[in-house]
Each structure stands twice: as C-alpha cells, then as structure tokens.
What does this fold into?
Amino acid sequence: MKESKKEVIMKTALTLFAKKGFYVTTIADIAKEMGMSVGNMYNYFASKEALAKELLLYTSRKFGDEIRKINEQTITSKEKIEKIIELYFTMAVNEPELVDYFMRVYLSNKEIFNNGCEGMLCVSAFVTEIMIFFEEGVRKKELKNQDFFVAFGLFMGYIGGIVFLNNDGVLPKPLSEYSKDVSENIYNALKA
Amino acid sequence: MLLKPKIIWIDGVGCNGCSHSFFNLTYIDTLLNKIELLYHPLLDTDEFKIQKSDILIIEGALKDNFQKFNKNLIEIVEDLFSLTTKIIALGSCASFGGIFGEGILFNKENLGRFYNYKDKIINLPGCPIHPEWLGYVLEMIITKKPIVLDEENRPKEIYSFVSHSGCVRNEYFDWKVDSEDFGTKEGCLFYNQGCQGPFTHSSCNKILWNEVSSKPRAGLPCFGCTERNFPKINLFQTDTMMGIPTKIPLGVNKRAYLTLAGIAKSLKNERLEKRLFEYEKTNNKN
It folds into this structure.
C-alpha cells in the first residue's frame, strides 16, 4: 500500500519537476498537488534529496527493465539497437517527464546526487543492461570490440541529444520519424 | 605389514616439470617409504619394463608415433593401462593435452583416446602440479580412502576451490581496484593483467607453493593452468568485450556480477585507491 502511494508521489513530483523545474518545486508543492499534508509527505520521503535519489533509481529501473526485455529476445544486435531507440523515443514522447528528469535533473545537477548516488549506484539497473547488450553483441561478432565508454557515450549521447532537440522544439519532424536513421547511424558506428 | 603399493611413473611428451615440483614435497622421504617405485624417469630405479602395478603415473602428453623405449608411446600406455588399478594423469599435459599434445581422458575440446578407462583415472592438472596435490592423492590411495572427483575427474578436495580463494588481493577484487603494474603489493590482477583466478579450479592460494607464496601473491596473474583450455594466448592480458571481462567469476550470472561490480567501483574504498604505505588513517572521512 505504502509503495504504490510512493509511486504516485514520485510520478506527481516528476510532472512538477518537468513543469516548474527541480529547484523551484518544493515538497509543499508536491504535497499540495497530491492533496496531502506536508507532514504526511515526509513519512514517504525524508527530504527532497531523498526523493530525487529514489526518482533516479525508479527511472533507471524502469528503463533497465525494458532494455532487459529486449536483451532477452533472440534477435540481432542491429534489431536490438532499433528496439532500444524506439523504446527511448517512445518514452520521451509518452512519458516526457521521465526522460526530462534524467537529462535535466540528474545529468545537469550532479551535486544533488553526491551523497549516495555516485557513479553507478543509482543508475546501475540501466547501465548494466547496456553493458550486457554490448557484450553479447561482441560475443556474437556483430559489434566491434571497443572501450565500453566510447560506445556508451556514442549511443546515449546521440539519442539523448536528439531527444533534447525534440523537447526544445527544434526538430522539424516528429521524433519517431528519426528512429530509423538514428538506429542506422548507431549500428554503423558500432558494428563489427 | 601391508604390501607397499607398486608404482610405475612414466613420462610422455613433456618437460618433467611435475617431477621436479613433486621433489619439493616436504615429506617426500616419508611418502617414498610407503611405496615401491618400480620405475621413474629421473630417480634411481630399475630399468623400465612392462609389468603390473597398483598405481600408474603418467606425466606429459600423448602423441602419435612418439618413440619411447624403442616403442610407440601409445602402445606402451595401452599395455600399462591393462596391468594397473589406478592411473594418475599428472599435470596439464597428461590431463588435457596442455602444452605438448594430447591428454589421456580429455583433450582441450573433446574426449581423449583413453576415455574408456575413465573409472581408473584421476586427473591432476597443473603446470606444474603442486607437490601437495600428488602427495594427497597418493596418501589417499595408500590408505585406501575414497577420493571424490569432479566431472573432469579431478579430486574435489583440491579442485572444488578456485585459485582466487585465499588470494591476498581479494580486497582489491572486491572493490574493483586494478593493479597498474606487475610486482606491486597492491591491486587486483583480474581486470587488466589476465588473472584467471576467479574461474580456475585449484587450491594455489589455500595450500601455498613452497609453503610460502603463489603467483597472484607475488604479483603474477593466475594462468589458469588447471583448466582444459590451458594455455590461452596472451596470458598477461584480460580478454574483454566492450571492456567487460569475457569470463566472470564462477557461480554468478553476468547481470548480477556487473551490477555488483559497478556498485563496488562507484562506492570506492579510499584506502585501496593509493599505495598501502601512503594511506593514513586521518585521510578517512567516514
């Protein structure tokens, strides 16, 4: 019971963070939106920092679980790339607050996450799945054996950048229409 | 008094390294007093002849058309096999082919030509074997105690451990701190230097060599010499795929291992991040 309420609070917080920004949004704002007392809110999250950390774990796990489903399919690495990008772009459109949180809050405000979310601590669910995807691609001789971070940066930096452009309204076409070309570019950069 | 077990020890294609290692067994005199050594290639024994034995020790690999005592090695082995009760395949070459050729019971990728003798054979891989390993097996046979074997006919008492067990660098492995150079006291050799300890079956770090040390303790990676695929190429290099070790510790799935490794690396153990002598307790922030 407590867990599901927690999840609703997190979703509400994500929406408010996306709308008003992380720093401006207070625990009181979230409580108000939820129709809860501020005191009751603190029963769920001890501070805004604690909430921020849990949100990161939540988004990472959510994305990681979806990539895991793709990893477990018996398809080629090329097809996996297409599916991961489709997944990310779909999430960016349908649940923009999730991707927005990851890019605008987590990646841009590392100081919030210095205590307990350093390195892989809160994003390991997602990064581990990308590792497994890369490693299996190399094992099957479909992807080139290279440094993990070189490949990871290329992959995530590229799709993150496109979603960023989309969210800023710069892209002339809907995000989904870029999926095929982006997938192909990534595959060409990673293939064996 | 019981009759002493008769032992024939012959060498196939090899370097006699396992013999030399065995000679370092601290209680070798006591052990040799308990057996009757009919033949050994390096010790002062009678001349070789095909005869009955209780234990046959074969050191070195098999090879077609390899001449030994003016006879084909394979034929000699065949003759001796039918005249013995227990066979010890000594070292990686006899067990799996190793450096020089063909194994008795197994080759690197398939079954060996004497697989039919599986029930008689005890594999003792190692390049060379640890003297205590042969000492243990002989004592067990002499005292008629059962030796439990694994699926590759290796005694579980020795080979159910991995050489990682007891390694003094385990703290560095736990916290994912790599060794930058050879010969330093600090750092784990698994990530860059090719150490195969976490998936190599042996008790090298439990029963030390010369009662003193082991390869990883001295700063050298475990070469995986007790495994069927020994030797791999590039022994001083960890094989990786996109930076992820190709082989991970035994008994854990890849997803779990990567998660744990990522978390340990992120948490950082400050004491292990620098040379041990340079660390001072006052640095500890806690």
